Amino acid sequence: MDSDHTIIHIGNYPIKVWHNDPLVDGYEYYGELSTGQRTPKEYRCNLSYFSGVSCIDLPDRLHLWITHNGSEFKRVNFVRITKLSNQCKLVITLNIDYARWELEESVSSFVFRFVDFIKNELNVEITADKTDVGYCIDVPFYGSKVDDIYNWYSTCEHTVEKFYQKCLVSPTGNNSESVKYGEDRLHWWVRYVFVPLIGSGTIAAVLAKYIFQ
C-alpha cells in the first residue's frame, strides 16, 4: 500500500491528509486532525471551518478523525466526518470516565440507559465500548443533503446533550445530578478505592454509611 500526504480544502482552509492508494476501508483520504490551538496549522481543523460547507463540497471517500477540545458539551472528545458514495456521516464520540463520574447511579447502569434512550429516539445503532477508564460511546448521524456541515454538527451535538441531560433523571424520577461530591472527587475515591481495599465487612459498611449519608 502506498500512502502519501496531500492537501484538501475545507472551505477556505487547507488541511493535510493521507492519500491512500489503494483505498483503505473504501477511503481515499484520511485525516487525523485536532481543534487544539497547539496543533500544527496543517493538522488543525476547527469545526467552524465547515461553516457554509455542504456535503457536496467534500471530496468523496473522505474520512476525517478530529480530536475536539472545545465543545461546550464536555463529554464530547472526538468527531468523525466521512463521505462515501456521496453519503455524509457524522459520528460524535463521548467519553464517560469513572474518575469524573459524580452521580449515585453506577457508570455502567447510566451508559446502558443512555444508549437505549438514543437508540429509541434516533433509530440508529450505537456502540458503547468499555475501556480501562470508563466508556466510549459513538453516536452516528447520516445525511446526503447537508447544506452546512457546521450547523449540522451543532444541531446533532445539541441533540446528544439534550438526551444526556434527560437521562440524568433516574427511572425513579430523582435528578441524579443533584448529588455532587466536590471538585476533589473524594466521594469517588472512597466508594471505588478505599472501601474495596478495606473489604466488604463491618468496617467498610460503617465507613460507607458515614460518608455517603
How would you describe what is shown here?
The termini are far apart. The chain is an alpha+beta fold and 213 residues long. The chain contains 4 helices and 8 strands, in the order ββββββαββααα. Strand 2 (13-24) and strand 3 form a beta hairpin. It has an 8-stranded mixed sheet, covered by helices on one side. Residues 176-189 and 208-213 have low confidence and may be disordered. The chain is globular and about 50 Å long. It has helices at residues 107-122, 149-167, 186-198, 202-212, and strands spanning 2-10, 13-24, 27-34, 62-67, 76-84, 87-97, 127-130, 134-143. 28% of the residues lie in helices and 32% in strands. Helix 1 (107-122) crosses helix 2 and helix 3 (186-198) runs antiparallel to helix 4.
Helix-strand blueprint:
Blueprint: E1 2-10, E2 13-24, E3 27-34, E4 62-67, E5 76-84, E6 87-97, H1 107-122, E7 127-130, E8 134-143, H2 149-167, H3 186-198, H4 202-212
